[in-house]
Amino acid sequence: MYLKVNSDDVRGTFQHFWRSTGFCPPLPHHKAHDFDLSKDMKQNLAYIGAVPHRGIEQVRIHWLLDLITVPTYSTEGQPEYNFTYLNQLIYELYRNGLKPGFEVMGNPSNVFTDFENKTQVYMWKDLIKLIATSYIQEYGLDYVKSWNFEVWNEPDCEDFDMKFTLKGFANYYDATSEGLMQAHPDLIFGGPAGGCGTLGGSKHHGHYELYLLNHIVFEKNYFSDKIGTRVDFISLHKKGDGKAMNIIEDTIASMKNIGILFPTLANKPFYNDEADPMVGWSKDLAWRADSIYGAMVVKIIAQHQNIFRANPDSPVNFQLLSNDNGFLSYYPYQFTQRTLVARFQINNTSPRYTTFVQKPVHAAMVMLSKLGNQQVYVGANDSNNGALATVYYPSGNDTSDSWQMSILVYDSNDTDHGSEYGELELDWYINPPDPKQGYAVFALGNDPYGVWVGLDNKTAYPTQSQWDYIRLQEPVKSGPGKVLIPPRWQILQPEATLLHLCAKSDMAPEQVTGLRFINITVGQVLVIWSDDNIKTKCIYTYEVAFSPTNITGPYQRVNKVDTIATISVISPHPHDGYYKVRAVDYWKRTGFYSNAVYYPEDIPV
């Protein structure tokens, strides 16, 4: 494999359009809060939010409105809404640096029964306005206007918890749009969130998606009585059936069909917010456990960048790709379901507890987060291997920020393990503004699943020593060095390798902020922090330090493995005491420690 890269050959801006995941709570929907607000989900969201540099920022969640209840009615007969559960979930997202992909989906206490009834249509509009204005008041407009409000998920699948006629569904759309517009005109709303077959050729009985688009373009809005209703983005779900290019081809075909039927929608921003390699999140598929999945995610993102976003003649105005992999796996498929982390439910202890292991696909998202904001031309890509190259120029020199260049190389035969290997030959012309350089090579070589299978025989309840060895395999593997970078090295399929080169800044990394904890069980604690205050991506690791007796120390490092994700399991946890965290850059310069925070074992989650 031969790659030719010139840091001066910038071809355009590079946006991180893939920073999204999602999940669906299980049945029954009216008890979605039991899942969404569980201790397990709180850990899961912490891991999702721990992808550095806001590498994942959106979590698209089904059945959000079923978190709202109606305990009573006013004297005028209007429902009195209780937002407690929804408030708690939004806060949990916010504290992890995340935001909701807000699917307007669900039926609070089954209040709504007929969307051809004018009273209920207006009541729905008022509910949506209340939701949006409440969160604008709580978190500010800038946060809420970044949310993607979206129509009911996959309406042609007819997974409703109320009755919808086609006309009623159009009324529901107009009422949602109007409620958001009344809350603030900058709020975003789109759809049809289709995923049950080719648009207009559903495998199911419903034709809601086609009807809705026709209504948006050609019919009168319920409230304005004028032709046309806004749609800020077109969202469809295109999955790969095991092949990366299937996603691209189906996207092109669907948008071509939409463009023919509705020419005014042809250039709307397009979201594939369930762009998974394979349908069915809970399927037991071994390739989801190791680097096959991670490398394929990198490949899919690279293909979308090069075919759609970097192509001036792109047939699709592609703006967002989401991997729907924020679910909670369950025994005995801890690693092999479509998730970012593997969940272990430890039921042979008292008390029982749950802990998680980062999968290679989580590591892939970490690697992707280190890419820059301008795309550099790469001389070669083919169906199985290729690269993304980016460069980054800092806006000022009064922080730890500096010039950076990244090359993310992948070799993926989709869901096949592959047997290919060969030499990667890199012709890399580098023109940094500062001759003092450092770099790190991050490889998707971590394999906690292989350790668990090969050495631990898939034990449901690993011992402490087994956990220690499994967790050694969690983080993306890194190794800093000094230029010169070797021009050749072996690459084995499946693989993703990131070369990250930085000019040396004048300043060490900034102070870590937001230190907090989640209690796992006696002797185990999940330590979480934020990198929002850190201005550089040239971070080699974070050091977690602990003092058992005094806030002033002495402290010793307690995280056994280097990590660039902003999370670490400390186990065995010594005892109650003070924790603090600092960043270390490629030159081994340390930033200021975070404020020390005391951790009591009995603190609730």
From TrEMBL:
Stored InterPro entries: GH (IPR017853), GH39_as (IPR049165), GH39_C (IPR049167), GH39_cat (IPR049166), Glyco_hydro_39 (IPR000514), Glycosyl_Hydrolase_39 (IPR051923), Ig-like_fold (IPR013783)
Domain Glycosyl hydrolases family 39 N-terminal catalytic positions: 3-477
One function term, GO molecular function aspect: L-iduronidase activity
GO biological process: carbohydrate metabolic process
Keywords: Glycosidase, Hydrolase
Domain of life: Eukaryota
Coiled-coil region: none
Keyword Disulfide bond: no
Span of domain Alpha-L-iduronidase C-terminal: 513-601
Active-site residue list: 154
Keyword Hydrolase: yes
Homology family: Belongs to the glycosyl hydrolase 39 family.
Name the record gives this protein: Alpha-L-iduronidase
Species of provenance: Lottia gigantea
